[in-house]
Structure to design on (213 residues):
């Protein structure tokens, strides 16, 4: 899925946000499996790896000291502290992807989304994922079985505050059915790729069709 191959296109930044457990990570994985033009932004974090996570693939797992060094050197596109751990997105690979027509997917919270917007508002496509209900959100968090009850309760307390920022996003999806939600985000992505301002090779393409400008 994408624009006509002969037309050069600038990449975009697809930002997905939601409270923990609403489904953004599941949607992100499905998008990456279905779309070869989309690549996942790999964030740096100070938290410990969870079972099965690989350094440099899921995250760059850094010490607190190294993370602070990168902040001081202005090497992050965005960074934030969530539940006692720091997360940040390195700038250089994102900029290179945009210039090469590659779309970059971000699985970040609302704080990260705001920082990305300040950096690259013209390249940003932002989507907020809402759960169908508070009860369903709580059930999903408990079913993960990776965090303690205390951590889950903390995430539930945080969820209301996070969801209050839904109106800062361009698109909002209620994730009741994961397949429908994935299809909705793919439709958004297709439409955004076809916007005239992103198709950098469109003018040349039209001129080659014999259309004057």
């Amino acid at each position: 899925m994408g624009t006509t191959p002969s037309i050069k296109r600038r990449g975009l930044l697809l930002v997905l946000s939601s409270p923990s457990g609403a489904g953004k990570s599941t949607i992100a994985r499905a998008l990456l499996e279905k779309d070869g033009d989309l690549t996942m932004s790999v964030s740096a974090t100070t938290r410990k790896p969870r079972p099965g996570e690989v350094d440099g693939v899921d995250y760059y797992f850094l010490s607190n000291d190294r993370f602070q060094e990168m902040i001081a050197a202005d090497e992050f596109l965005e960074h934030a502290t969530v539940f006692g751990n720091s997360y940040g997105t390195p700038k250089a690979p994102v900029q290179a992807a945009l210039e090469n027509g590659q779309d970059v997917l971000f699985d970040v919270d609302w704080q990260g989304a705001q920082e990305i917007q300040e950096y690259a508002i013209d390249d940003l496509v932002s989507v907020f994922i809402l759960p169908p209900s508070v009860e369903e959100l709580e059930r999903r968090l408990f079913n993960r079985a990776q965090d303690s009850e205390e951590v889950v309760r903390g995430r539930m307390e945080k969820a209301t505050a996070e969801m209050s920022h839904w109106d800062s996003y361009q698109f909002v999806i209620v994730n009741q059915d994961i397949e429908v939600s994935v299809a909705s985000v793919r439709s958004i992505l297709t439409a955004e790729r076809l916007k005239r301002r992103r198709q950098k090779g469109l003018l040349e393409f039209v001129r080659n069709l014999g259309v004057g400008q």
Notes: The CA atoms of residues 128 and 172 lie 5 Å apart. The mean pLDDT is 88.
